[in-house]
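To: structure subgroup
Subject: Chain for Friday's discussion

All,

I'm putting the inputs and outputs inline so they're searchable in the archive.
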Amino acid sequence: MSDYNKEERANAETERLETEKLFADATDRVACPDDTPAKNHKAGFVNIVGNPNVGKSTLMNDLVGERVSIITSKAQTTRHRITGIVNTPGYQIVFSDTPGVLKPNYKLQESMLSYAQGALTDADILLYVTDVVEDPTKNADFVARVAKETIPVLLVINKVDLLKNNGELDVIVARWKEILPNAEIFPLSAKEHFNVDNLMAHIVELLPPSPPYFGKDALTDKPARFFVTEIIREKILTNYEKEIPYSVEVIVEKFDESEHSIHIMATIFVERDSQKGILIGKGGSMLKKVGTAARKDIEKFFDKSVYLELHVKVEPNWRNRENKLKAFGYIE
């Protein structure tokens, strides 16, 4: 090999090492733009699971500090796996709110159950949420899977504000210690923000060393349109009874955003003509009520004025049709 080639290779190697160093320095700065070195940063996925109506979404919103999951008194409010991200200079927590565990009666519920089951496979920390009135034997097969987890499991006993005395709580805690002996137990009230800070502090302690998974200004991995559909669906859950809320799906057809305003056109799908009539109401009164309430919340969410158009269409038996579930984002 000529001296020229040796020198050329040496120069190339020097340049490569310098480039690697620059890249490593840049990675530290990008991963932790607040000057916290990447090697000292912590990050992890914290998945929230449990049966319907135990307060998972309320807890998620409280932990994140933002309203990213819709909340109603009805069961099965959450249909998707919803991510909320907490960022500080030293850590990033990626929370996931999942649909309540249930025995599926149709394909949509099968998809909802798959989100909850999937949450057991990709978490760094698992929050199993129950409450003070739930039967611990409900969905025992799922709880048995939780008991076998090797990752940290934090058992959240929610709604302790409903208890009359500590003796009642002692009985509940003792029962759950038998069912999930390896779990750490946190009695709390997400609604009253009681003991939530202690839960959060322990989650931070358990986070593994890692650079952030998302940008430090990220709140969620969901697009803006998703939150529009969730807000509209929340208003339907609030204003209608029986089967109507569970037969509804919302799709945003148009989302035109300018500096100060957003023009949104959304379609509400139902399964039967009779449901369409109920949803619209006499002279369109009910649909107008839902639209007004949704628009106000969407304006708060985006901090912009909103023009919202709502339309209703019939899509027979969509909850059991795989092609429609794919189109609505429930099946990949």
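Points worth raising on Friday:
Confidence is low (pLDDT under 50) at residues 1-36.
Residues 1-31 form one domain.

D.
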